[in-house]
Amino acid sequence: MHHPQDPHYRPKPLSVWWDTAPTSAPAQRKARHYVPGSNAHPAKMLPALAAHAIAAYTNPGDLVLDPMCGIGTTLVEAQHLGRRAIGIEYEPRWAHLAALNTASARREGATTHGEVIRGDAQLAGRLVPSGYHGHVAMVLTSPPYGASTHGRVRSTRDSGKSGVAKWDHRYSQDPANLAHAATDQLLAAFTRILQECCRILCPGGTVVVVTRPWRDRGELVDLPAAVVHAGTRAGLTPSEHNIALLAGLRDRQLVLRPSFFQMKNTRDARRRGIPLHLITHEDVLVLQKTDGIGEVQRSAASLPLPGQQLPFRSTRRLRSAPRCHRVTVRSNARRANQPSDS
Question: How far from the centroid of its chain's Cα atoms is residue 76's Cα?
Fold first, then answer.
């Protein structure tokens, strides 16, 4: 019987991915020996979710790209599944950790290499070596949900001190990071990122975006629908909308793993008479590169370069991207003594 860690495993085409959180996120990363410091990233993709997507839409030997790779979860899972992997990451801290994690994957038995480039994903076509253009079988990524996430917390019950201590909840302090962008600005930039990825994809290549809605001052922001719109503007064709569970299944019952603030926000809303529910899934949007290459190139001409005026109303503008840097790790890098606990 095959499973997601088998390079030849291919999941059945179901709209609900029920096996993406069989264990907690810390347990999944512990099994992969992520290097210390990886747990500080506030919005890591579930390894089993990444593995499921990679197994479903690629074959061993294919090239997988994550243009916003964070600590390298997509790359690590691709390596363990026998796929080649390349990632782009804007923040030097996360790019360094991603490179270390790809090196760790090799030491742990992965059969392929992973490469990390530091730079702005809006310039992916320039950052990714030209030899890879037209050979990327799949793009797998997740856009930021805002400048701050739930992060890690310690409540009064845990610490014995009054109040809630919160840490590891911010992507970056750099105001040019897209995590700090207003929603319309983020969508304009993400459209350009998808367009750049479309240039690099092979004919018929697949783009998988993991996202979810969120609330901003009580109003629901339908990010999945906005991502589909961004993909269409970038020249991609929507093909699937799947649901990936963030909860385990035990005896046909969901095993929830909500964060402290998810529980608090839901309870507070219900006290105010708002019938909110805990979120136990991610939206997985699948788009394809079609034959309309000319249309893609024409649509690209209407999209702004970083630092230029954006087509959406916004009170802020993106700064120009810094010069990119290839991130490398020596093959004899010291193995971490302790795996990440996140």
Answer: 13
